[in-house]
Amino acid sequence: MAQPRGQQKIQSQQKNAKKQAGQKKKQGHDQKAAAKAALIYTCTVCRTQMPDPKTFKQHFESKHPKTPLPPELADVQA
Length: 78
Description:
Helix content is about 60%, strand content about 5%. The protein is mainly alpha-helical. It contains 2 helices and 2 strands, in the order αββα. The chain has helices at about 5-40, 55-65, and strands spanning about 40, 50. The chain is rod-shaped. The protein has a two-stranded antiparallel sheet with strand order 1-2. The chain has a domain at about 30-78: Double Stranded RNA Binding Domain (2-Layer Sandwich), CATH 3.30.160. The relative contact order is 0.09. The termini are far apart. InterPro entries: MBS1/2-like, SERF-like_N, ZNF706/At2g23090_sf, Znf_C2H2_type. This is Zinc finger protein 706. Keywords: Cytoplasm, Metal-binding, Nucleus, Repressor, Translation regulation, Zinc, Zinc-finger. It comes from Capra hircus (Goat).
């Protein structure tokens, strides 16, 4: 028995909405993983992670001014 076109349309919309929600959920997880992978510099004092040496040096100078600068940050221009 054939379904009326209105009912078929509603089912199709529900199916499409569910499919798109699944894709968004998958993308959100990938973005989190990519963001975490980008945090490659870890502060030796407080273990905070940063994406680049410039940010790392700025963090170190503002948060740990009495601690000597790590040798890997000596030549970084902030």
